[in-house]
Amino acid sequence: MILETSLLDRAGSRKPENKGRIETMLQKMAEEEARYIKEKKEIEQGAKKFEKLRDLHRSKDPFFAFAEVLLQIAIVISSISILATSYKVFYFTLNSAILGTLLAINGFLIIFRFPFFH
């Protein structure tokens, strides 16, 4: 559209019959610009909602990561406690599993926050 307007402007040296077409094209371009600005505002509003959702999920991620580590450690240490028949190690395993479970639950509900997790 811009190219056509430019060609009409140069080729016709602003002839009267081309002036109407140029004005029509300029009006269409102004309407398109207004539509693009409106769409941009709508897209920005949607993007802000997604940014808030992203930030929420990003704040939950460390809880799940540490919960996973603690639960895996609990599984390995429980195997060791069974082989060694040690109750002290088994109780350490239970504490690790409980802490991992609490962190996983907190990952879903965000009951408490740790400043060093960000």
Q: What share of the residues does DSSP label as strand, in percent? A: under 5%
- Based on secondary structure, the structural category is mainly alpha
Please estimate the helix content: over 70%
* Helix segment tally: 3
Determine Rg (CA atoms, Å).
32 Å
The total number of structural domains is 1
Number of strands: 0
Mean pLDDT: 87
What is the approximate shape?
rod-shaped
N-end to C-end Cα span: 50 Å
Low-confidence stretches: none
Could you spell the SSE succession in H and E letters?
A: HHH
- Largest sheet descriptor: none
Q: How would you characterize this protein structure?
A:
The protein has 118 residues and is an all-alpha fold. Helices cover 87% and strands 0% of the residues. The protein has helices at residues 2-12, 16-84, 87-109. Helix 1 (2-12) packs antiparallel against helix 2 and helix 2 (16-84) runs antiparallel to helix 3. The protein is rod-shaped, with a radius of gyration of 32 Å. The mean pLDDT is 87.
Q: Keywords, please?
A:
118 residues, mainly alpha, 87% helix, rod-shaped
What is the topological layout?
Blueprint: H1 2-12, H2 16-84, H3 87-109
Brief synopsis:
With 118 residues, this protein is mainly α.
